[in-house]
From TrEMBL, chains A, B:
GO terms for biological process: positive regulation of transcription by RNA polymerase II. This is PISTILLATA-like MADS-box protein-like. InterPro entries: MADS-box/MEF2_TF, MEF2-like_N, TF_Kbox, TF_MADSbox, TF_MADSbox_sf. One of its GO terms (molecular function) is DNA-binding transcription factor activity. Keywords: Coiled coil, DNA-binding, Nucleus, Transcription, Transcription regulation. It is found in: Nucleus.
Length: 174, 174
DNA sequence: TTGTCTATGTATAACGT
DNA sequence: TACGTTATACATAGACA
């Protein structure tokens, strides 16, 4: 189909190969369009040059995704579904975790506790008490630090306290 | 390219359409094979007849999945990633939520509080106190209910307490 | 490169069967 | 309906700009 017949084997001359590639690629895409119109077919065509450059054709009014989905259905092939499923599972897992944390948080705040029994309430109370103890210890530490701080603290020329530690501990800055 | 020129528009005669479809489909697949060999290209071709029947061609030594993955990478096109991205975003969102709940929970339990300042600790303490108050109210309610219950309770023939309310409240059953 | 031009090879529309 | 056949339209290899 040209000035001379050619064998169907790799074209060694790279610039010829490139030329032939782009001509034939256009040809195939044209044919794909035609069969789409003529025969009411759906076509998905993806071509990669050896250079890695890509071209595609996909019948109008049909997203490639849809075609691939049909492909997927028909072929029974998993394709991307594996990935899809992984993500879904991950979501489910995290959501579960999320829900239970949500519930635990609410309970600690004393919300949504009307259905809890004495034992369950006791567990929560214990946790709260433990938490409170820890928090208070920490507060005591801070107070101690402040006192130590105050005893060595000084004011600047404008009468402001000069102590990064003091500010940090009280949350006045940073 | 036949006995007569044809317009590129849907062939209305359905048997002609079917014939043309299968001829042209073979033609395209042949071309696809040729460009694959001649130009060292990779081709993925999926064709659906309007009947729903599918045919595919894929360059040898290349799985369709791989081609699609390359396609996906190169095209910057979302494709199935649209779905994936949605899922990923969802995951990110939930994870964020998760993390902050995680932190809040730890704080309420008095963990990981070494970097907190006085103000922040105070907030936590307030929440704990509020929660404790709620829990204690509920406990009181239960005690009241139990008392009321006990006064009207009875034992069964084997000496066991017969009171769904009592069991539920104390968590001995269910 | 990137395109345009033909001579030629191919694909195929319309027929037969 | 599903195949071969064949006249024709189309695609394209090589040449040249």
């Amino acid at each position: 189909m040209g000035r001379g017949k050619i064998e169907i084997k790799r074209i060694e001359n790279s610039s010829n190969r490139q030329v032939t590639y782009s001509k034939r690629r256009n040809g195939i895409i044209k044919k794909a369009k035609e069969i789409t119109v003529l025969c009411d077919a759906k076509v998905s065509l993806v071509v990669f040059a050896s250079s890695g450059k890509m071209h595609e054709y996909c019948s109008p009014s049909t997203k490639l995704v849809d075609i691939l989905e049909s492909y997927h259905k028909q072929s029974g092939n998993r394709l991307w579904d594996a990935k899809h499923e992984n993500l879904s599972n991950e979501i489910d897992g995290i959501k579960k975790e999320n829900d239970s944390m949500q519930i635990e948080l609410r309970h600690l705040k004393g919300e949504d506790i009307s259905s809890l029994n004495h034992k369950e309430l006791q567990v929560i109370e214990d946790v709260l008490e433990k938490g409170q103890a820890n928090i208070r210890d920490k507060q005591d530490e801070i107070v101690t630090m402040l006192r130590k701080n105050v005893s060595t603290a000084s004011r600047d020329g404008h009468g402001k306290w000069v102590s990064a530690a003091h500010n940090e501990a009280t949350g006045l800055q940073t």
